[in-house]
Amino acid sequence: MQQMQKKYSKVFCSAIACAMGLGVALLSISPAQAQVVNSKLRKHKMDILQPLTVYFVDVEGGQATLFITPEGQSMLVDTGWPDHAGRDADRIAAVAKLAGLDHLDFVLLTHYHTDHVGGVPQLLARIPVVEFIDHGPLRETTDAPTVQGYDAYQKLLVQTHTKHLLATPGMKLPLYGLTATVVSADGNMLAAPLPGAGEQNSFCKVSEQRPTDQTENARSVGMVLQYGKLRLIDLGDLTWDKEMQLMCPNDKLGKVDVYVVSHHGWDHSGSPAFVDGIAPRVAIMDNGENKGGSPSTWEIIEKSPRLQNLWQLHYSAEGGATHNVAAPYIANLQGKDTGNYLKLTAYPNGRLVVFNARTGQSQIYPAP
Ligand SMILES: [Zn+2]
User: Fold this and answer.
1) 230 and 254 in contact (C-beta within 8 Å)?
2) Ligand 1 mean position to 62 CA, how many Å?
3) Structure confidence by residue, pLDDT tens digits, 256-269
4) Which residues are paired to 107 by β-bridges?
5) 114 alpha carbon – ligand 1 mean position (Å)
6) In angstroms, what is the span from residue 274 Cα to ligand 1's centroid?
7) Per-residue pLDDT tens for 290-341?
8) Could you tell me how far CA 111 lies from the centroid of its own chain?
9) Domains along the chain?
10) CA of 238 to the centre of ligand 1 (A)
């Protein structure tokens, strides 16, 4: 019996099972009990795999999204607005501290509009950054605040000798343990479909064609992040016309679990071809009370085929009574803005947990 136990314990005792003291126990249990044990093992295995963590910092209708990879690397996507006595940089630094970070490995600037690049000087005064990632030179040189934000960023790059990486479509960002592919940059789009994508997109025919956007928005660095089965997309403020290039007639991106809502939910982005094509399970919108959250965009997301919940960083004044999600899914309600964040914890099997810092409540989305 001892020999048999040894033999079976070798067969059944994976590293996880041994750690749980379950290897030998499997010998003397019924099939039903074995099923329970197996399910516990699966859950335990999933729990010990480090999740991807994403903080959606409230920067009042700008973007500041902090990714912490399973390997512990940090990447902040955009830095919010300038001024306001460093409000946005303070909020980013507070969330970084909460996450146990004393520096940021990467800051990816999607584009140079002031609600994305404006916070760079204040951020650098609070937390060190190892490397910046961007789409290259500013192209929209006619907008004074944009030029000012870009110049301040360039000056700091030189002064602080911070490393710089140019993003181009198709390249993989230097993150370990997951794959983050750049799908748009400087107005150029991914040429070939991502693995698993490339099907004809039936939602193209219900999406109107829109004129080419000439602003920095269309030059946004966009990425699709894959970790195991989990897929997440963040395209910054990429505009409708560029979405159509990525999604029509064939979908180059494929379905995602999480959609970081483009352009703060403003109706210059978020075409049905894109949103229905990527068919997110969960969408998180970085709108402000008076910026983004357009009713038409909100409706497209809410009606997308696989959506379980849309979360909002803010109640949207434009959305009013009919185009806002229920209060538990909003981080900052009307008139009570204290800069609450949302936090996503995402596992490689597709299990998601969204935490609302205002309510202290989490919602769990089991793996599909
Ligand atoms: Zn923006």
Assistant:
1) no
2) 5
3) 999 999 999 999 99
4) 76, 132
5) 8
6) 18
7) 999 999 999 999 999 999 999 999 999 999 999 999 999 999 999 867 899 9
8) 16
9) 2-47 (no CATH), 49-365 (3.60.15.10)
10) 9
